[in-house]
Amino acid sequence: MSEMKRIPVSIIGVTGYTGGELYRLLLSHPGVEVVEIAAKSKVAEPISAFFPNLKGVSEQTIVPIEETSRSGIEAVFLSTPHGAAMDLAGDYLDHGIKVIDISGDHRLRDAAEFQAWYGMPHTHPERLSQAVYGLPELFRSRIRKAGFISNPGCYPTASILAVAPLVKNALADLGSLVIDSKSGVSGAGRKPGPLYHLPECGQNFTAYKIAAHQHTPEIEQVLSDLAGKKIQLSFVPHLLPISRGILTTAYADLSENLSLEDLRQAYRDFYRNEPFIRLREEMNRVSLGAVVGSNFCDIGVFLDDRLNRAIVVSVIDNLVKGAAGQAIQNFNLLFGFEETLGLERAGWLI
Amino acid sequence: MSEMKRIPVSIIGVTGYTGGELYRLLLSHPGVEVVEIAAKSKVAEPISAFFPNLKGVSEQTIVPIEETSRSGIEAVFLSTPHGAAMDLAGDYLDHGIKVIDISGDHRLRDAAEFQAWYGMPHTHPERLSQAVYGLPELFRSRIRKAGFISNPGCYPTASILAVAPLVKNALADLGSLVIDSKSGVSGAGRKPGPLYHLPECGQNFTAYKIAAHQHTPEIEQVLSDLAGKKIQLSFVPHLLPISRGILTTAYADLSENLSLEDLRQAYRDFYRNEPFIRLREEMNRVSLGAVVGSNFCDIGVFLDDRLNRAIVVSVIDNLVKGAAGQAIQNFNLLFGFEETLGLERAGWLI
Amino acid sequence: MSEMKRIPVSIIGVTGYTGGELYRLLLSHPGVEVVEIAAKSKVAEPISAFFPNLKGVSEQTIVPIEETSRSGIEAVFLSTPHGAAMDLAGDYLDHGIKVIDISGDHRLRDAAEFQAWYGMPHTHPERLSQAVYGLPELFRSRIRKAGFISNPGCYPTASILAVAPLVKNALADLGSLVIDSKSGVSGAGRKPGPLYHLPECGQNFTAYKIAAHQHTPEIEQVLSDLAGKKIQLSFVPHLLPISRGILTTAYADLSENLSLEDLRQAYRDFYRNEPFIRLREEMNRVSLGAVVGSNFCDIGVFLDDRLNRAIVVSVIDNLVKGAAGQAIQNFNLLFGFEETLGLERAGWLI
Amino acid sequence: MSEMKRIPVSIIGVTGYTGGELYRLLLSHPGVEVVEIAAKSKVAEPISAFFPNLKGVSEQTIVPIEETSRSGIEAVFLSTPHGAAMDLAGDYLDHGIKVIDISGDHRLRDAAEFQAWYGMPHTHPERLSQAVYGLPELFRSRIRKAGFISNPGCYPTASILAVAPLVKNALADLGSLVIDSKSGVSGAGRKPGPLYHLPECGQNFTAYKIAAHQHTPEIEQVLSDLAGKKIQLSFVPHLLPISRGILTTAYADLSENLSLEDLRQAYRDFYRNEPFIRLREEMNRVSLGAVVGSNFCDIGVFLDDRLNRAIVVSVIDNLVKGAAGQAIQNFNLLFGFEETLGLERAGWLI
Fold this sequence. Notes:
4 copies of one chain form a homotetramer.
Chain A: E1 7-12, H1 17-26, E2 32-39, E3 45-46, E4 61-64, E5 75-78, H2 85-94, E6 98-101, H3 111-118, E7 132-133, H4 136-144, E8 148-150, H5 154-168, E9 178-183, H6 198-201, E10 206-208, H7 216-227, E11 234-239, E12 246-253, H8 260-270, E13 277-279, E14 285-287, E15 297-304, E16 309-316, H9 320-334
Parallel strand pairs in A: 1-2, 1-5, 2-4, 5-6, 6-8, 7-8, 9-11, 13-15
Antiparallel strand pairs in A: 3-4, 9-12, 10-11, 12-16, 15-16
Helix pairs in contact in A: 1-9, 4-9, 5-7
């Protein structure tokens, strides 16, 4: 085996959970060299000052975002809070650098919708139509040819993968979709707050932003594209008292009578040869523990045959398949690597 | 204040979580004297051997179930595993002792349905029609006159209270009901098993018995009675990595166009003067932390107005309002006490 | 039973965990009426806005500390952060109001030592000698006659109770004491911060302020008084990934050869008739689960006979026996109530 | 880079946590081919039936231990419960296969001591002196030449590494050693039991086997060898409400006056060039979160200068450096690989 060519990349926003997980995963990716890491207003501190697990593994220095370079890199990962990537992406693109935006800034095509759900105007609406939505299981061929990827949100990844076969194959009543999703606390980021203070949330469970979460239009946009008609659905997120993982339970009235086996066969066909989709058919339950630490999305397909309703449960690690891992999967496609490169490892045992 | 008369009672099945919580709560109930506590095959051990929190508080001795008395008590709480209460209830009733069965043995009226969902035949189907379903918010007047109470299941308590105003007032499309429920591990009882082993479940979250949980027909039976017509719904339970608490998210398509305010007013009217129902209108979230340790059921009513779908979130402590506390609430009604007696305390702070 | 006289009291700093737990406990104390609750800069908000468990239980309004009254109350609980009570206590005392300071402001007798460990000067050093240290198991008779109580710290309560029988009876080599203590996160207060952010601490365990915690001189001061000579010891606190509870493991070389039975007898004699001390002799382990939610301090006494070293494990609920409950115990003594009044309940089952 | 030679190995006891973690780690070790995996009485089931994280990663079949082969492998890992490896090791050794025993069967040199602490007789006491204790930081040169490794216990790894520099350099009073250790639940294995049932332990913390844990003589034996004289110490284990990780706090009276800098320099010198030891000098705390998922042992050295007592805190992942990772480290030494091969990854971010 000859040494693989390493693509020089930069990570902007490396001190958050997604940026940190991305950095950690890229350290063992044989086709990447992380030549620059940047964060807001942090001058000349080593990455291990922010992530003590990295001590002795990497002491690479963080540079301020304003001092980042546009030369010597072929790709940049934007792992910044919402509102920052829209001002950064253009300059990288103009320099011929491929951009993978992990934030929510380029996921919605409609600037007015962005403003309505994110509560801020979009400063570069002209670029909303340029970004390719980076969900490889649905848009692999477009991703391969892209220069600008908008990496999906964590809830949308779990939600869309759960129902895409139903929607694409017109198996469900599109007005009946209900998505009840539950996420670990890391999805809310690294900034402390009362809702994430251990005594408040450690033994708690909360439904929040009920029918009001900004990932709702993202899910709807992608599913509408798949269906070829406009879809609206109910989406309710919940906060689990754990660090990582999303479990999504989706409900859809079937548009025709199907057996459980028919239903599962539709999923098998749809996800045939997908390296990161695992259909869980072995028992009447689905656990997120099986995917945490990995890029897998496990999906269990069930039928409430009394009501002819499909119930589909999907699980992902929100920081991996829901963010950093999927960004690497997109990177691999962009640069012609094996799609699973650097993402082969199984999830944690416990 | 004169000293209150104390009703002598017995608890059968005191070493489980529900029995233990019931005992703990009754210790500070001014209208009860627990004169006998019993468990399977435990001879002459003090209760504190099973619940170390009770050391120095009570050293009452547990007797074997076979040696329990039928004299000197006016009520018995059956806190036994499914399948045991059906053989115990009759003898108590025959001795003129009021029975509160906290198990699932007398909740379904149809013996065939019992067998189908519980996986065992019912040994006394003739008594299924005698037990009054002990959900005071719906059946208070019948409970007051009863001698035999079937205490609701934990999931059904949270589920029925969440949607009863919609069903009773014919506000919802009855075929559209989806109930997505999440419970702490104590709901599975005190017996260790792989699913409840901390390394397996402490950072995990699982959907289980998908569209197959034995609480489904119980919910449907009560709601069908309320609606005056047969209801079937989808019910999916999930296992939270915490000890106590249930949060239920219910979805129902509205049968007419209602504003959020209309919807909330319907709930205010329905639960007016209910001492243990708290409507949560102050923000766009509902947390189970607010009820753990108490007999409250908090309910948040929301509207996905784009889809004209009600989303109702309810939270209870599964061991209190979902079991032992509700049993005491029923006891208070049976014996003419203030309904809240012994249940006045707020939930735990954290 | 005639209605008990209710002492009117005020709580200053009611929105923190200790203040909130104190308020919750006092709601069911038959000898108290909480006539005023105050917090910093919070005007006219109900207590339930800060503690959702209290909704429907109390909607008492919080007043700003600057507007608190000095008339109509007989006692005040100061549940403020360190540095605030020293400026509040005097005025209450001058108005003949009994003061129970739950903060650390009046625990050390030496103002220089206070400044060295708390990092701030003491503004009223003249009052340091007036406050009686409110650990009833050691200083009950002084507390009964006092007008000004300094409520012990959480770590000191667990630590002192663990070793007091050894120190008082001169059974240990006083230079050998090691106290290794572990606390839940609520001990750090309600203010969010990176160390208490669930993803950072939920699966973590940390030793902190190693040989540098401000509770060290408090423990030493009390034990030195007991011994009649100066004691210095090593104290290391650790942060447990749970909300409540402290477990302290204390090590002391014995000054003479004692059997385990001798050692345990010394503890039985020392704590004879103490209502809140439970000696755990039934097995070779001690768990904090047995005391959480109660005012008990459980103590297990062990002997490493190969080394003639006592190992004593104590557990408390840091918010109850380590703060609010002990404050009520002191209050009961100050006002001639039964010492256990309002504190009789067993800890939580699970 | 040419393809590395892969050593064929077998894992016996693959369905426990240590066996499973070992298997997971070896899947990405470039110098190993796991040709056989075995467990008790499990015939022809795939490994993913026991570890759902492995689905789609490996479906290797588990064979019954009785049917394991003695040909075609160069090394065997015995990851069996205590009492099983002593009957398996000999046959492998007789066939010229290198044995790495991860169980406790060959750690103590004295069969009587084994029987006293493990509660069972040793069936092959003649082999106790043959096994080399596999703690590379102390015994690397012996390990390289060995054919039979006894892998250290999890508590002993953390404990010995914490104090070895003090003991080896005669810096401490050897009679003063106190080791207070705290472990996650996975250290107790995969078998469910009341102590590990989530409602019992999820918010609990327990001191257990106080001065009675079977790892005590293992720690003493190794430290006595280092010191050149017999050492006895107090060891108290505690059960943390998390899955993984051990934090050990060790206390030792210094035999001479040392500054903190002197003390830390002694550790730096002792662990110079150790790839898996990280000295944590940057702040006054040590967290186990920094090592979970990795083979690192982080050590923080502190001085209670008022008492001239060293306080050393060490943290490891009990399943990695405390078991499977260290076994791989030993394997690498046995077969001439780079010591860190397959173990380079940083611990988990959160």
